[in-house]
Sequence to fold (274 residues):
Amino acid sequence: MDTALLIKAAIMGIVEGLTEFLPISSTGHLILTGSLIDFSDDRAKVFDIAIQTGAIFAVILVYWQKIRDTVLALPTDRQAQRFALNVLIGFLPAAVIGLAVYKTIKAHLFNPPVVAGAFIIGAFVILWVEKRAKLVPRIQNVDDMHWTDALKVGLVQCLGMIPGTSRSGATIIGGMLLGLSRKAATEFSFFLAIPTLIGAGVYSLYKERALLSLTDLPLFGVGLVVSFISAWFCIRWLLRYIATHSFVGFAYYRIAFGLVVLATAWSGSVTWAA
Fold:
């Protein structure tokens, strides 16, 4: 396979890993980066979704102890059962609604005004929620969540289907708005990403399987490995960051990036299309 194409795959993997779990929308960054490096055909769009699985492996590695202990304790431990059930309940809205509206979103919402608007509106939501963050959170730990909390966060996660909104941003900021602490909201967002992004990746590969062949394995392999490595570093950094910082900086970044989206679309230098 062409070395230049593998380098492009690595670049996209870096972007995916660094943006997937931050409240800044990996989709918007992948579209912009793909257009700038000429990696935006139909196969590349499947690639963008598939390499999310690499980022998910990073979550599994970081939280391996928690995941292993939960799985082993499932038959007898009520807390482990409640945690696993909460993740499942949080995942279901995205699975059901995603299947129902996938084609509509792809056909009508992948355009500069929607992406830029979602970036900027999301920024102001973050600023608003951070002002409220001085209130004492109702839930300090993911293990303290009730199934209704998980369902509400799962419904909020569906907003992340709008390009530019950010799945992570919707679940983290939405979780904080619903009474979760910054740490609990961030960690539940990570755990919720495991079934959500793996499901999206498998579904995309199945739906677009006619576009792919065995010769694409090195391309996807590079993207998966690089997204895994960059996501691992990003998750570790984010967990340290939220211990002493708010998400206000990400809000200002979202406003700036939203303006970049409009500027690149207006100039014609980037094709913002599904």
User: Anything to note?
Assistant: The longest helix spans residues 78-108.
